[in-house]
Amino acid sequence: MAKKSLIAKCNQDKAVATKERAAGKAVTNSTRLYNRCHLCGKVRGYMRRFGVCRICFRELAREGKIAGVTKSSW
Fold it and tell me: What is the pTM of this model?
């Protein structure tokens, strides 16, 4: 689990980067910005389309909370 402070810092850095982009400035240290899971804060295994990591995605899909995703079986 990521610490809440890391998640808050990441969100703050993304907000600053978006403001700089809107103002036409070059984003400083853009490689340090990470996509984090909105539920648990994981960096790795992040699924951009859904905004969560692979583990949270699997749990939400199994519970039927993600529309259009079904468990495949054959």
Answer: 0.60
